[in-house]
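Kindly review both lines to help learners:
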Amino acid sequence: MERYLLIVLLLVAVALRAAAADNVPRKVGEGTRFPIEVKGGQALRERLRLDLAAVRQALQETSLPEDERGKALQRADELALQVEALPADLPPGFRAIFPLNDLHASIYALNAYVLRAGGFPPLSAWTQNRWDPLFPMQAPAKPPKTSPKLNVAMMRREYRSEAFNLTNATDKPIKAHLKLTGLPGGDNPAWVSVREVLFTDTYVHFPIAAALPEARRITGGFEVTIPAGTTRQVWLTFHPTTQLAQTHKGRIVVTAKDIKPITIPLQVRLYPFDFPAELSIAVGGWDYSHDKAAARDAGILDLSKFVKFLRGYWVNTPWASRIPLDGCEFDADGHLTREPDYTVWDRWITAWKGARYYADFLVFDDSFFGEKTGTPRFKRMVGEWFVAWMRHAKAQGIEPGRILLLILDESRTPKEDAIIIPYAEAIKAVEPKALIYQDPLHKDPRAVDPRFYDLSDIISPMATRFVSGSADYRDFYISQKDAGRELWFYSCTNGKHLDPITYWRGQFWLAIQYGAKGSFYWSFGDEGRSGGSFNAYTSPAHMFCPFFIDREMGIIDGKHMQAIREGAEDYEYFAILRERVARLEAKGSKSAALQAAKKLLAEGPVRVTREISVERIEWDSAKNRAIMDEVRIKALDALSALGR
């Protein structure tokens, strides 16, 4: 009897293991990386070596007929020799976009043997959470039996996305044609954009699927290319404006030469709400769009197009640096005898007309035009300069309460605090409504000179430190908010290998939970002084930009930037819900819908932020990436239940 039970248990264990394996995606070469010190042609060879080794291992482990396996492995040996024969330098115009060259494409093509051995048809469609990491040779554990179904729920006038994947099990690239049909606005409606996701390498040599160039338009739809043996993700971004608030059912039809068409059902549920034209949270990223040199790598772009792009992602708080200062002159007593040159300021203000705030990193040190901080002459100089500046700004319709000043960045020592305090005192003495912004990095914020906080309007701790710090650390900054200062968050960790959910979109959920009113990121233009986003193998420093920039290709949308936009919209959901709850409570309502909404306001953000931790900040760390959409849809349902 015991022997019989043991056999049964073993069989059950095997069955469970097999069932689990069916749900584990095949990620040939998943997350392979090599040291960041490896650069240039050596980096190219190392990437090809890793991918070739991964394919070789998959070929060894796959149930292929021996003759096919032998043929594939012989081809792998030939490709290995070609990899080692590559020149030491990168070719002119090289971009770290996969496949990196024809040799890389040939390596990927070997994965087609693996896919076919697993029963995959020439072209298959499947899906996963759109924010999950994806790799070029990734596929489901087994061929999908049915087409994926795409579902989107949203308000009008906001932006939301969804995605599906196409896997090519043939030996040649497939040009797939896509047609969206059945939705309002006719075939391929203008309110749905279709993007072909590019695989790129990063500064830390972790491959990502994040670049979102628009798919090539063709007659009747769009075209995307899937290299042999690889998966291509298709990213859809929805921006309905006038469509009826109801559930719309359409479909995506995928066709290719000599391949059976694939139909993917698509459902878009539009709730009866219009997203507001302006956000209630400040959004920015040290863009420094006032000057090409200051904008770092984004300086290769047309700055007007750069600004237009950022404004399309709810960026409402642009950053400049050290303006207006040039041209100031003072007499021996510290009186302003010549106002600053406002040329750069005026150009910047015009480009960002109607912004919520105008943020200026002043980069001050312990003297102002040669006068040491704290002297009577210093106070007069700073005061008269600032009064002149505010007079000029008011003439442009900008009140002091929209001017945000960062005097010295990331103060962390008493010496740095001692620089900030006299400037803040001099400015507040002449204009109390000007906003002093601090992004402090003190190890013990309680040990700081109290004037540092008393003179501040906005305290913006680094989000990663806030999350990973002690309860006392968080409580201190929350107490600053309770004392009348605004709490904002900022992040300054590199780069595109970080999870769009945890790092980028998640910062807004921290703001929801803790009542913060601003969300900033370093930086919208910093790609490590590499000259572009696709120069990961030559970049001298970390690359931060949440989208992609290239001298010839211009601005390319990115998942990280879309995560910022969706996070800002998540924030607004809860701002709207909070306002609706307050209004109904003021009227004396005690309905069940109101109680459910209050519970969601208290518990929903906490559910989300449990998934946000520094330990799981990288994109390949496991987490529940669906939770943000689950909770935001509950907010939509709560708003619907409350009525208008």
